Each structure stands twice: as C-alpha cells, then as structure tokens.
Amino acid sequence: MLFCSIYSIWFKMLFTMSKSKIQRYEICCFEIYYLQMHFKLELLIFFNRNYHIALSLSFSMYFQCCNSTHAPILLPDGSPVIVGRSAETKIPDKLCSRNQLELVANYNQKYVMVKQLGSNASQIEGIDIGHRKTDRLHAGQTLHVVDMKYPHKIAICIPNSGTTSSNTKKTKLPQEENTFSKRQKMTEKVAKNISDEENETNSNNKNNSAQKPSYHWSQGLKGSMDDPSLRVSKDDKVVVIKDKYPKAKYHWLVMPIENIISCAHLRSEHLPLLKHMVKVGEQTIEDNISEKDKSKTEFRYGYHAVHSMSHLHMHVISQDFDSDALKTKKHWNSFTTEYFVDAEDIINEIEKDGKVKNRKHMADLLKEPLRCHICKRDQKNMPELKKHILKCG
Question: 107: how many CB neighbours lie within 10 A of its CB?
C-alpha cells in the first residue's frame, strides 16, 4: 500500500503538471530513501531553470579521504574551499601546495568543481586536471590531491541518518562552524592573491612577451627543457640537458617531451620510448666526451626510486662523482645505493609486469651511512669520502 500511495501521488503530480504546460518545468531529481523502516521522498522541481521547490531531506557534501586519515571537510553549496598541504588534511608532502585545490560544491547537480591551483598535477580518475584548469568531480569518482597520491571522494551526508553516498566507513563529522569560518577567510585571501598574481602576469606579458615563465622548484625540469644554455640535444621524442647541479664530471638528463610525471606512470606502451631514451643516452656520451675519457670513464643510466622532480628523467652519470655540487649524504646515497635504479631494470619490470615496482619504501636508503661505492668501506663525512674516492679509484 505504501508503494502504491507514493507512486499514485507521483503520477497524479505529473498528470496535473502536464495540464498546466509541463514544458515550463524540469524534473531534476526523484529519489526514494529507505531509512529506519520508513520511506523519505525527495523531489526537486526546477522552476523556469532559476527557482526550485525542494520537497526533500536537506543534505551536506564533504571532501572525504579514502584512507580516513583526516575528518571530512565540509563543502558548502557554492562557496569555494581551499585544500592542500596542511594540518587539517594531514598531507606533509612538499609536492603538494598549501593551496593545491579550490573546491566549489554544486548541491543542485551533486558535483564539485575542482580547480588546480598548485603547480604539481592533481588527478580525477587518473587524468591530470592541469594548472589553473577546472574539472568536475562526481560522486563515486576519485580525486588524487597530488601526483596520484592522497585519494579523496565526495561524501553526501543526510543529517540524522548517519549515511553517506560514498562507500566509506562511518565517520564522525567535525564541528563545522568555526572551521568553515577560518577556511572561508583563507579562501578569500588566496583568491585575492591569485587574482593579483594573474593581473600582474597579464601586465608583465603585455610589457614583455619574451619574459620566461616561473616554475615551482619541483617542476624546474620543465623550465630547464626550454633553457638553451642547458640543452644538449633534442629530437621528436626526447630532450637532453645538462644537470643544473651535476653530481659528477659528466651528468646529463634524458627527458621525454611527452608529459610523464614519474616511473609510477609508466606502462607497456612506453617501452619503445624508454629504450629510445637509453640509446639517446649512449649517443650523448659518444658525442660529448673525449676519446681518452671514454676509455677510462664508467657510466650508469637510471632513475631515482622516488622522484622529487615532477617530470620523468633518466640520469646519465659518470661514476667518478667529481663535483662540487655533490655535498650531502643524501646526494651520495641517491646515486650509490639501490635507490638508483638502472634503466634496464625499469624496462625489464615493465616487460614482465606491465608497470614499475613501488619503491617508496626505499626512501630510507638516503639515510644509510656514507660508504665508498668501490670498496664499500664506511666513511666519516663527505670531505673524507671524496679524498678516499681519489685514492680508491
């Protein structure tokens, strides 16, 4: 009887509306919720596309972490919310800007408009949004805050029901009023800064169209690709540049022109490109060092296990490590431990498994004791290590 009564009301309403020129209206949403052994009816009728009558339960939208590392963040209808690296999101990664994303919820159509403010890539369903570009995030879709990390979804919460639309654990919602007030002030400040920055950029572009663009430090490689003082060679697939801070006598970077963030994004279709990069690396050595050095200099081609720069790059580096830019234990261990992965190993992994192994746990190798890469003896500090290498080599 309950079903019959609900549907009879519905069809009667349709019939009544058809008699009064139904084309003036749009039925936008009709949902029946079964909650606590009774039905609750939601009917949104849009009036001339501008006004609506809501015979429904009210709901709220939240930005919810898939790993439940922080409390859900309220997304008020139509009000921009800034999220990024903060105590609130518990994101410590410096690749993530403090103002990484602007989120604007649309309660009528139940989606969130996402604008990427940070320099490093954010993704919806694995697809980059793009710096200063926007895309829609719908319920059920996954948003990675930066570099395919920190997955989040939209949670649609119905008050007093304790349920959400996403398949997530039941989470106690935070006290919203004070938090939102603080965030709103921050959002207004960020919006003003962005507006001022864009106005300044437009003004500078008019005054000096040849001015070089600025890059976040983690995207410095993209700027270096276009720097004629660093570029060594270029073809239709890759660019070779000198490392701006070389860690050895010879140190080049081979980078694809295609926008590939890191080894984690490599798949089987990239195999021809990776093999081409190795060949280009070999040719770079052939073209840029003397015959005398070729006979006595050993080289390695490879990638760091965890990328700090946001563009795929293969190191071509001589094993003399004779450079003033080689200053810290972190520098040393990044090229002389398993943290440095040979290019052939990357290719073999993709040929076997279709992707590269997750090596994020290898970050601890950077803290290993200083050890000679030739005789494997521990050294006290970098000056002592460099003296030792001259004798050991």
Answer: 17
Q: Is the pLDDT of residue 384 over 90?
A: yes
- Give the E-state strand segments of the chain in sequence order: 25-35, 38-47, 51-55, 60-65, 73-75, 80-83, 101-106, 111-116, 123-124, 127-128, 134-138, 143-146, 149-158, 163-164, 231-234, 238-242, 251-256, 299-304, 314-318, 340-342
Question: Is 217-392 the same fold as 60-166+174-188?
Answer: no
Query: What's the rounded Cα separation, in Å, for the pair 276 and 291?
Result: 24
The rounded distance, in Å, linking the Cα atoms of 273 and 339 is 22
> Domain 60-166+174-188's class?
mainly beta
Catalytic residues: 313
What is the Cβ-side half-sphere exposure of residue 256, based on CA atoms within 13 angstroms?
20
Q: For 153-209, write each residue's pLDDT tens digit.
A: 999 876 655 445 554 444 455 544 455 555 555 555 555 555 555 555 555 555 544
Q: What's the CA gap between 240 and 313, in Å, rounded?
A: 9
pTM: 0.51
For residue 262, give the nearest of 348, 148, 130 by alpha carbon: 148
- Is the Cα torsion angle 167, 168, 174, 176 positive or negative in sign? negative
Report long-range pairs for 254-261 (Cβ below 8 Å, ≥24 apart). Answer: 254/280, 254/281, 254/284, 254/313, 254/314, 254/316, 255/221, 255/225, 255/311, 255/312, 255/313, 255/314, 256/312, 259/128, 259/311, 260/311, 260/312, 261/121, 261/147, 261/148, 261/307, 261/310, 261/311, 261/312
Domain ranges of the chain: 20-57, 60-166+174-188, 217-392
- What class does CATH assign to 217-392? alpha beta
